[in-house]
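Suppose you are handed a protein chain with no further information: no name, no annotation, nothing but its sequence. What can you learn? This example shows the usual starting point.
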Amino acid sequence: MTERITKDTVLCISLAGRPTNIGTRFHNCLYRELGLDYVYKAFTTTDLAAAIAGIRALGIRGCGISMPYKETCLQYVDALDDSVRAIESANTIVNTDSFLKAYNTDYIAVAALLRDAGVTPADSFAVRGSGGMAKAVVAALSDNGPRNGTVIARDQSSGRELAQRYGYRWQAEPGDARATLLVNATPLGMAGGPGADELAFDAAAVQAAELVFDVVAAPALTPLIRLASSHGKRVITGADVIELRAVEQFVLYTGVRPAPEQAQRASELARSAGA
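A reasonable first move is to predict its three-dimensional structure. Written in structure tokens, the prediction is:
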């Protein structure tokens, strides 16, 4: 972030029902460190169509999209990246000369993390949840990995729909489900929530797994991640997802990819002071 904002300073924003300072701290930290003449500001809106029209009209370079706008925003942009088409949800809009294109860096980040973890078509998986992050995970698995999978979701309508869309099984409860990859894509384990101390999968399932992935980022060391680590399992945390998806947004906005240590410092700063 430039020390002095001028008429040439590039503006990036976020739109969320409940804005936080996490993205603001992350992006502005990297702008400062990399000497980029950008500034990032968080907003909310009661008129999404007008807000996105403002992005186009004012030359705002990029916009992070959070709930509840991830699906609704699609009707207001000019093009959809394949990452959006995969799950019909966006978390990023990039403005290039008034042409708005939507991306989903959740999907991009999850696909990269699964690939880096060595997930292969020979693996089996169980994903608990059927919301936006579950869609990103299941789509990434379908595009890049296992064919033997189960979607576990109490909501029969959304759970069965997600499973059937990609040719997987659906069941309402974990039961005795066993797989080499376990993914929690529900709020279970989230600090301050009603299921903060709950495990998305039982100890027997964790013992049978090789890799455990929890999308919950606060805390990064959820009960599930702590249990998996105590059994020597490889893990992917929600903090890993948040950092990588923010990096991918940053690259889309600026064309600059920060070094891993720079991204880690920005991520630590973003999380250190709460929302």
